[in-house]
Design brief:
- The chain has about 425 residues and is α+β, with helices and mostly antiparallel strands.
- It folds into 2 domains: about 15-165, no CATH class; about 175-430, no CATH class.
- The protein has 8 helices and 10 strands.
- The longest helix is centred in the middle third of the chain and has 33 residues, at about 140-175.
- The chain starts with 16 loop residues before the first strand and ends in a 25-residue tail after the last strand.
Length: about 425
């Protein structure tokens, strides 16, 4: 005996559409559209991109199949498909998904995820009703169906817009802007340095034999190698290659190099010691997997080719500061489909501290910064505040933080957030 299949959507002579079928198809379409719009905003998490894209294709494809062949098997497929989407969203919201690169709590949270889950749940329940009651109980005329479709699409617009705003936030994050222009933490682009050298390429032990700075400076200014293009090659050149001993040019602007003559001997010694201590400590974190195994969690930033920040929240709240054995945050460089690189340690002062509380260390060279525009849900950054208002999440002001880079940086070994090609800035506040 053949199973009874529900009638096709236009199931009577007047052109009416079964209400439950309309809800099932419409809910799946809207959930699929939202998932498709979220894909761009999660471009930095390949696992999540694949998951969202698959959900969008499956939900939209099923809706087309239901219109073409509204059989019991098709309705059951829709029930399972959208039911699974709701379950996955619930796990993502509560505890994160292990297949997702940002794998923290809230990977699919926020208005877009919640709205898509509501539409998917509506579709699943409507498909169940269609299966349980093959004979329609309520019919919707074609005119009302169109009106309801418009209302549902309007209801989905805020979630789609929110997904696009989050995508714009990711672009800002990957651009590596500072706290006045809105990245999540110390982001920009550069190649990896070698062990033992500071972030502008100076010899970390100061012997002048190797690893000269990006402008070709000798790490001790002894004139033996790697001098700038303007100076006379005798000693101590500034960032433009001028010979500072000759008195022809005095350095100006932010202090970004250990070679800068404005850095005192005591400050230089502190900076070198800081770099050496961090370099030694970071040997324990050769890979992202090692970082995660040590208890660090991603805050979900960095896009596809930017910088992603992992925070050990227990270290942040332990009351200990500037301890190389308890570094609060580790930064990795994303390289698209290529493996991520561990590129920086980042010290963060205790919560509640402000720029008035920062230790001076190596003076202006150790450039502290903070962020006052990040919107968090749990431990994940979900948006950038505009005018002090978060479109989703909760506005959080960070404590001051200090990068110690393991790779060459255009603005020095302790640079905060600056975009490549822009003027270096100093965020040190006394």
């Amino acid at each position: 005996m053949n199973a009874i299949s529900p009638p096709p959507l236009p199931s009577n002579a007047s052109g009416g559409i079964r209400a439950s079928a309309l809800l099932a198809v419409g809910g799946s379409v809207l959930a699929g559209l939202i998932h498709a719009s979220v894909v761009v905003g999660r471009a930095g998490d390949p696992g999540l991109v694949v998951l969202l894209a698959a959900a969008a294709v499956a939900q939209l494809g099923w809706a087309v199949a239901a219109l073409e062949n509204p059989s019991s098997r098709v309705w059951m497929t829709g029930l399972c498909l959208n039911g699974i989407a709701v379950v996955v969203w619930g796990f993502s919201w509560a505890a994160g998904l292990p297949v997702v690169g940002s794998s923290g709590s809230g990977a699919n949270a926020g208005l877009p995820g919640l709205t898509a889950a509501i539409f998917a749940a509506t579709s699943a329940l409507a498909a169940l009703c269609t299966i349980r009651r093959p004979e329609p109980r309520r019919m919707v005329t074609s005119g009302w169906a169109r009106a309801l479709a418009v209302v549902a699409l309007v209801a989905a617009v805020p979630a789609i817009n929110e997904a696009q705003r989050n995508a714009d936030s990711v672009v800002e994050l990957t651009a590596g802007q500072d706290s006045a222009g809105q990245g999540t933490a110390g982001q920009d682009t550069a190649g990896r340095g070698t062990a033992g050298h500071d972030a502008v390429g100076h010899d970390a032990v100061g012997d002048g034999t190797a690893a000269h700075g990006a402008a070709g400076h000798d790490a001790v200014g002894d004139g033996t190698a790697g001098h700038g293009t303007v100076g006379d090659g005798t000693a101590g050149h500034d960032a433009d290659g001028h010979d500072t001993d000759s008195g022809t040019v005095s350095p100006t602007g932010p202090i970004i190099s250990l070679d800068d003559p404005r850095v005192t001997a005591a400050e230089r010694a502190i900076a070198v010691s800081l770099i050496e201590d961090v370099t030694a400590a970071m040997v324990a974190f050769p890979t992202v997997e090692a970082v995660q195994s040590a208890g660090y969690q991603s805050i979900g930033d960095g896009g596809a080719f930017g910088f992603e920040h992992f925070v050990n929240w227990s270290y942040l709240y332990d009351g200990i500061e500037l301890d190389p054995s308890r570094i609060e945050s580790i930064v990795v460089k994303k390289n698209g489909a290529e493996p991520k690189q561990v590129v920086s340690a980042m010290y963060i002062l205790n919560p509640g501290q402000t720029m008035a509380d920062i230790p001076m260390l190596a003076g202006e060279l150790t450039s502290w910064h903070l962020h006052d525009n990040l919107c968090f849900e749990g431990y994940v950054v979900v948006a950038i505040a505009v005018g002090g208002v978060c479109s989703s999440g909760t506005l959080t002001v960070t404590p001051p933080m200090l990068h110690v880079w393991l790779i060459p940086r255009p603005c020095g070994p302790f640079a905060g957030l600056e975009a490549d090609g822009e003027a270096c800035t100093t965020h040190l506040h006394s």
